[in-house]
Amino acid sequence: MDFYELVSKRCSVRSFDAERNIPDEVLLRILDAGRLAPSASNLQPWRFHLVRSPEMLAKIHPCYSRDWIRTAPCLLIVSGKPGNAWVRRRDNYNSIETDLTIAMDHMILAAAHEGLGSCWIAAFDPAVLHEALGLGPDEVVFAFTPLGYAAEDYTPVAKNRKSLDEIAVFL
Length: 171
Fold this sequence. Notes:
single chain, NADH Oxidase, three-stranded antiparallel sheet, 6 helices
């Protein structure tokens, strides 16, 4: 699949085949895509948490209120420390959110390339997630995603995007 077809077909999946495991080599390729993501000043201020054990999944599930999340065999959480990220001197802008977002996006696209579904989730309870993962007070999570093969009966929602005329400016 070429890149433009990949970004066109990638969609949010909210129903997974809970019985179908993801091969380790597939998960490693996805994580490697995140590792290769660019970051400000190449500081790579991230950590990737791949949660597959039933015990850890049970600790993390309460951070998100939708039941469908429990059908995913795996959760991928990207965390980082703002103190390890690049800071612009002029206005103290900290690149942590941008860096973590780029890494997450690389991994979500890699997952789609591997035939896996994902769903960008930002509506979670950070306190539950921090406690479950044992994150320090100096660590942040901006999003996480379930990973898995879409359920056989899952029908993706059609993308509704603005036209380029509405969002692009040629100067």
